[in-house]
Write a structure and sequence with these properties.
Shape: elongated
Strand order of the largest sheet: 1-14
Order of helices and strands: HEEEEEEEEEEEEEE
Distance between the termini: 39 Å
Oligomer: single chain
Structural class: mainly beta
Amino acid sequence: MKKALLLFGMILMTAPIARADLTHRMSSSTQLSVNGAYTDASRIGSTYTVSGSNIKVTDAGHFGKMTAATATAAAAQDVGEYDINTAGSAFSFSESWTQGDAVNTIGSGVDVTAGVVADMPAFGNTLSMSGGVAGTLAGTITSAGVTTLTAGGAGTTATGQFVTEIVID
């Protein structure tokens, strides 16, 4: 009998162990954001082009050109003086001028008040975006997992989430 009990005890020891682990996770979050104001301005340079056929400069003249300005001013145009080279013959002439931007002093040109771009530099290429205004932007999550989001002003976002997860191993 003792041997039978010992054998039965050994069989019970080698039986598989039952596992019934249970994991339950809950998480809540809110994310509130307000867009920032920005301005991206790029100065453009002065350009001058001239082309043609059967054209010459006058005796006292010269081709048009750009002249150097001060360290903060854009180049200026010095207008040329042209004439037809062979009278009575066909001719073509084309001239183009783009006035470049002057250099603004550092720290000037952009004012932002309450997320709104009030003024910006007057450069050839300018992109401006007003920022958001928080206004009544808010987000809360109660201990019961109830999420409440309140819209803000323009340029704002509010995101809330409640996640529950059950894992049975």
